[in-house]
Amino acid sequence: MVQMLGHDLPVATIKLILRAHEALVTGETWPLRVLARSMHVDDQETSEILRLMRRDLNAPVVFQGGDTQGYRYQPGKPFDLPFYRVQIGPFLLLKPLTQGSSGPVWMGVHEVTERLIVAKFLDTQESRRVMQFNAEVRALCRFEHAHVLRVHDRGQLDAMAEATSGGQLRAGMPWVVTDYCEGGHLRNREWSKWHTLRDQLLQILDGLAHVHSRGVLHRDLKPENVLDMATEEGQTDLRLSDFGLATGLGGGDSGPLNTLGSPGYLPPEVCAQRFDKLCAASDLYSLGCMAWEMATGQLPFDVDQPVGDLFEDHQNRQLPPFRPQRKLHSGFGSWLQMLLHKEPRDRFRSAAEARLALLEVDRTRRAGAVNHGRPVIPHAPADKDKPSPIPLAGAGLGLYGLREMPLVGRSKAQQALWYALYQTSTGGRPRVVCLEGGAGTGKGRLVHWLAEQASYLGVGQLLRIQHDAQKGPQHGLGPMLSRTFGLGGLSPEEAATRMDESLLNLGIIHPEYRRGLVNLITPGAPTLQQAERHDLVVRALLELARQHPVILWVDGAEWAADSLAFARQLSGLMDVANFPVLVVVTYRPRALATQAEELKLVQGLQEHPLCDTLTLEPLGPSVLREYAHSLLPLTEKVADQLAKRSSGNPLFMEQLLRHWIQSDLLVPQGNVYSLAPGAKPEVPESIQTLWVTRVESLVANQPNGRDAFRALLMAACIGEQINSDQLSIACAAAGFEMPAWVEEAMVARGLAEPRENGWAFAHALLQECLLRHAEEEGLSPELHRACAAMVKGLDDQRAGQASRLGRHLLLAGETFDALPALLEGMREALHHQDTEALGDCIDYREAALKAAGVPRSHQPFGENIMARAWFHILNNNWLEAERVALTGLEGVKKYGWAGIAPECEQVLGKSLFEQADYGGAMVHYQAAVQGFREMGDSYSEAVTTIRFGQVHAAQGEFQGAAGLFRQAVRVLGTGRREKRWRAEAYMMLGGIALATNRLDKAKPLLQQAMDVFQDLGLVRGMAQAGNLIADLARKQGRTDEAIEWYTKAVDRFGHLGGSHSGLARINLALAYIDAANYKEARRVLEICTSFFSQNGQKQWEATSRCLILPPLAQDNLWKEFDSQLKIAERLLRETMFRQADLANALSLAGQICLDLGRRERAQNVCQLSLQMYEDMKDAKGAERLRKFLDQFAP
After folding, report:
1. Are strands 550-555 and 461-466 parallel, antiparallel or unpaired?
2. Angle of helix 621-631 relative to helix 636-645, nearest 10 degrees?
3. Buried/exposed 233-257: b ≥16 CB within 10 Å, e otherwise
4. Interatomic CA distance for residues 824 and 802, integer angstroms
5. pLDDT by residue (tens digit) across 97-148?
6. Euclidean distance between CA atoms 336 and 354, whole angstroms
7. CA-based angle 1107:1111:1115, to the nearest 5?
8. How far apart are alpha carbons 536 and 1182 in whole angstroms?
9. What pTM did the predictor assign?
10. SS3 21
11. How far is residue 343's CA from residue 864's CA, in Å, rounded to a whole number?
12. Quick one: how many helices (H) and strands (E) in the chain?
């Protein structure tokens, strides 16, 4: 019904009146009753229409010849229509409703379905307003939910529509059509019962959960922006609307942050303009203000006071007493208080969590209480069997590419991914899924689907580690953390301050951890090596995962050696409690096969028992046809053509259909679209040609189109993610100005996505296609030359800039200029132990040397060989490192390469040491130390001396080892990297003092090492030093102190993976046994046994099973005692592992058995202890056991 002339007129009536007006213009007869019956309007209603027209419209209607002749107008007496008929696509606009913030708002109908709609227009060409209008349209297009206003189409007003609008609309105005909500906004709706208010809030929360799951913050929630579709009294069907201030969650499409929203509903962080704190909880605060107003009739704080005072109230004033107008559940006030906490971290963490708590209010047993639990992951995702909304006939063409593309034919992969997340969440342990498939098969879309479903239900959060072949500055672990904590666009000082605050709020209270993580994301901060970086990121992930399970997406794994190594470390953290992280690794198999290191790492992950591999095959013809219909309502003929021409690739089909739409080749045909009459659509040979064609059509007929196209080719040279300022600088270096409209046009055409400080290509393939086009057209050298000039001018101290410059210079053909930059990048990567960057620099530099015609006998080739040897060391490939290092030494002899020999000797020492060839390692380390000394390289001399000392210590030559460690300390300087190695030397000296029972010397050395490791934020060093301090306390009989230090070591080692944590737990269990705390010892050892058994570490499994015998005996658990002893004996035979703590534990178990009258068990276990003492040649221990066993003699 449409309110006009004081009447509620059905759409059919309006159509009849419009037809009458048309008859007046043409002079034809108006067959009212025939038309009315065809539109299912009865005679009584027809008569009412006639009266309406005569009385309210003064229409000069006269009868002419019965029903079939109909009615006509008396000539010369026209009447004015009470509404317009402005045609925009399949919609008929009837009258203006209001003047909105962006322009006029009209009401109309969809002609086929007679569904009421609203059209919003933009009445300005100001670029900022245009971008804001388009951003709101993009935001609305991302949503497909029952409680979010649905957008039906968009476009531009044509001249015919302008002519019929009575001068109120202007041709060229952008428009967007959404549903018309007859119930008005929420302020007009009243509630009389508790369940009515609750259901209204649940609908809003449900819509808000969907909005947040699509990565959007509303930022302007208030009653006027919540509309009601319901028309019947007592019913509500709410829709979130007005996304003009919306912004992206986690650095996505950013809205106008300088526009704050409605003061009465603003969260404290917005009042303080702390936009770095914006999160889902910010919208929940605004909802809390709405809910307070709905319940009490007024907002929490006085909106009539000055805005500054109101902002102060939001930030600091306590809530007034809650006095609802009607009786509510007693827990509702507490639920509101959770929404209205001043700090975001104290509110509900998600709309899903708030929704669950509101549902639980009715079931809360304690008056005034509210449950604040984490949502539980269901067996099936939220969208299972949910029907897709049916588009209105003839509508939606302007939205193609802006809506989320559907997933068709991937149900098995969806089920497998969801089940992996379910297992991760319920088991609380990391898991891995390798998702492989060709370009365009939907890998990324599947991960986004998983993340959206998890976010909507409040059971997961997505962290994305991005990679592509260009190795840009947005790739890797550091940028991932920067995006996660919203640090984009901040100065290094601001980023460091806010990161530290965020980590503290997250629960990372130890200053050493926070300092290290801040260093990781701060350009120019002290450098961190690979193991140190990984340890710190694990710590951050641990805290994030305790809030919500984490989906860690390694995107572009074929170029992600460092991130894959990190994933491997995560997969080993099986014994860390409550660490639900699902690692999803996506890659193209063909590209991965060309990357040796990444291939090896992926294969290593796939061998893990908790890793699944999913392969996405091309879609079959029937599935492709189904997919075509899901993209747009199409005729069977068009769907068949698309299916046949897309080669099983859904991405190719999407782009082909988009090309046809933008070429005006599709027209409405009833409820579907068909090819226009006479249309002969071209089908490009490949997706590369298709994408280049689409980009060319974007810039065609633009006055600066050539510059725009070159700018996009330049962007492709920069990488998949583009910083807008850097692109402008590169264009200027190439001698042209980047047109301002390019970015917005790319986003509008679905070719790009907004990002913080810039944008990203919609798909990696698009960037690759443009890059290939530039190469084929011979434009690549000049574009890369301009990119190199841009990088040179950047004041950016982040690691990787030198290799980035070198790559651009190499691809520009400036090979000699590229060599020093790549050498610097190679050294930087080696220093950071960044294997991914190191491998790239080696390959690029080798290509530059060949292109420059440098003979293989020259020094740079020797430098490359040395770097490649270290590359293999960092990847634990000892045999290959040995082979390459020997090649380097041959080159030194043959070509006289300077400075290469000591490095190669050091690599040989390291590789032989790891292979337990201690004699060979000592020979090469000694040669390396001498070589570095002769070169005057004191740092390398000291580091190698420490490694030389480690070989001595491994062989029990403690005196020689201590001398070398002290020698290294004398040589080391005072810089950060020197401090790290000084701490290593102190720790080694402390360990030797401990092993040789010089306990008074051990404590100060170990404490010195711990202080340095804490100052540098090095978790691994703190864990190792702390474990030795605990050993010292245990030896000195200070058991409580030992337990405290061992517990810290377990926590720190727990973030490093491998067997570190298990070994620390064994030490902790030994301390508990010393303290006769058998209950805690047993608890810890049960964890150890399970961990070592799962990981196949037999000697440590045997240790755990031996140590658990005293606690089991003490608790009279004899059946389990016998089982553990039997397995331990077998493992000890297999491994021949012998250790004093095991022998002591076995003898203690024997004593407990004897005390409890279990003589046979006591004798058996003590026989095993005696055998171990004898094997270790421990005469005192063996003699003590023989005396003990004498009492069993007959």
Report:
1. parallel
2. 120
3. eeebbbbbbbbbbbbbbbbbbbbbe
4. 6
5. 888 878 899 988 888 887 888 999 998 887 778 878 888 888 888 888 889 9
6. 10
7. 155
8. 46
9. 0.76
10. helix
11. 53
12. 51, 24
